[in-house]
Amino acid sequence: MTTRALEDRYGRVATDLRVSLTDRCNLRCNYCMPAEGLDWLPTEQVLTDDEVVRLVRIGVDLLGIREVRFTGGEPLIRRGLTGIVAQVKEDAPNVEVSLTTNALGLSRTAQALADAGLDRINVSLDTVRRDTFAEITRRDRLHDVIAGLEAAGAAGLDPIKINAVLLRGSNDDQAPELLRWCLEHGYQLRFIEQMPLDAQHRWNREEMITADEIFTRLDAEFDLAPAAEPRGSAPAELFTVDGGPGTVGVIASVTRPFCGDCDRVRLTADGQVRNCLFAREESDLRAALRSGASDEELADRWIIAMRGKRAGHGIDDPTFLQPDRPMSAIGG
After folding, report:
1. H or E segment at 62?
2. pLDDT at 300
3. What whole-number percentage of the chain has pLDDT above 90?
4. Dihedral angle sign, alpha carbons of residues 229, 165, 140, 75
5. What is the pLDDT of residues 178-214, one digit of tens each?
6. Cβ-Cβ contacts under 8 Å for 43 (sequence gap 6 or more)
7. What is the spatial distance between Cα 73 and Cα 70, in angstroms, rounded to a whole number?
8. Residue 48: exposed, middle, or buried by beta-carbon count in 10 A (0-12, 13-18, 19+)?
9. For residue 77, pLDDT beyond 90
């Protein structure tokens, strides 16, 4: 079996596959979607469990994928999640399989996911204050997230990474508090600049908390030093905290873009290849798959889709247009 690289015109090779399993979510984070939610994808448009597993297998066996991250929406909503993880790990035991989740329901599923072969998790958590959590997510569920994190730790889903977005006037004063809490619990915190991926299309660069502002807030209470290990294609700049061993990361997608080292490709819940998080074009694998295309033909389509990847996301370009799909429908 011949493996070909998912290489774009600029020599970047995608080895990290992000697979959205659903566009639905059980939170309503105010920087992501409106309180009433969105119009979800019709069930018949969403890839079946077997279709997801087949496309992942093609990615691994024919296209050199080495990491698979399941995302949403909220992937724990997907009833077949545990089975999908188990089948992917059976097909490709040497591929790292991880999950990005809001951790609601993780207390009930963490052990089953670990038994299925899940390697680790990323949890989206912007605050450890109950009132702020309810304000941001429009749900009073912080206790469920903490219970999910504890269950993940008990199940051995390490390292546990926390993804946090700071919002001006909401939780931007809580960065040191959140970092201290993560260090105490052994979680690896990553601050992420808010990106123009909200369903409301209200993102405003002037309102975004930048990486420089994040550093200013953390430097007031911690001694940060660049981590020794090379960053490579990882999106986060890593820093040791107070001499280590604890670390904190900052993902500055907007102000310090790392497009030149990108190794990611995305597959949406309805089977569309996205060669960039901010792409405005997609390539349909679902239609070909359901029309009887062979694995090799699907791989060919995927390769063609990657050839169209742009040099960068272009947020700083005056002509930049936000993708039509919000983050919840793209998958992180």
Report:
1. helix 49-63
2. 97
3. 75
4. negative
5. 999 999 999 999 999 987 666 676 667 677 899 999 9
6. none
7. 10
8. middle
9. yes
Question: Residue type at 318?
Answer: P
Structure tokens at 299: 């791989």
Domain segments of the chain as ranges: 6-166+259-330
| pLDDT at res. 318 | 61
66 burial via Cβ count (<10 Å: 0-12, 13-18, 19+) = middle
Pairing of strands 16-20, 67-71: parallel
Question: What does the buried/exposed string (b/e) look like for 156-183 if buried means 16 or more CB atoms within 10 Å of the residue's CB?
Answer: ebeebbbbbbbbeebbeebbeebbbbbb
Given a cut of 80, whether residue 316 has pLDDT beyond it is no
Neighbour-count burial for 299-312, b at 16+ CB within 10 Å, e otherwise: bebbbebbeebbeb
Residue 38 φ/ψ, nearest 5 degrees: -130, 175
Cα three-residue angle 270-271-276, rounded to 5 degrees = 105
Backbone conformation region of residue 121, classed left if phi is above 0, alpha if psi is from -120 to 50, else beta = beta
Residue 67: Cβ within 10 Å count: 16
Q: Does the CA dihedral 197-201-205-207 come out positive or negative?
A: negative
CA dihedral 316, 312, 74, 191 (to 10 degrees): -60
Greater pLDDT, 321 or 251: 251
6-166+259-330: CATH, from 3.10.290.10, 3.20.20.70, 3.50.50.60, 3.20.20.80: 3.20.20.70
